[in-house]
Design a protein that fits this description.
Length: about 90
């Protein structure tokens, strides 16, 4: 590998980058960004009315759990496991 990767796709990618002294600082920053990203829930529209112009009014939403937050896409078991990896370096 030459240089820091453009895409980090897995938990193992983070582990490998953290093991390299030249990439450790950037990997820690990227890992912190994954931890800080608040994408565990989504707002879903339940019902709404439309006005004369066809725009939504009286919108009612509900909060639902996100199926695949970023930490899960990367292969972490939980948001806390991201923090554990961060704190281990």
């Amino acid at each position: 590998m030459k240089g820091y990767p453009k895409v980090i796709a897995t938990k193992q990618d983070f582990i490998n980058l953290l093991a390299e002294p030249e990439f450790k600082a950037q990997a820690l920053a990227d890992l912190q960004a994954v931890y800080d990203l608040q994408d565990d829930t989504l707002e879903r529209v339940v019902s709404y009315d439309t006005d004369d112009k066809g725009q939504m009014i009286n919108v009612v939403t509900e909060t639902v759990a996100a199926a695949m937050p970023r930490w899960k896409q990367l292969g972490f078991e939980s948001r806390e496991s991201v923090l554990e990896l961060y704190n281990s370096y």
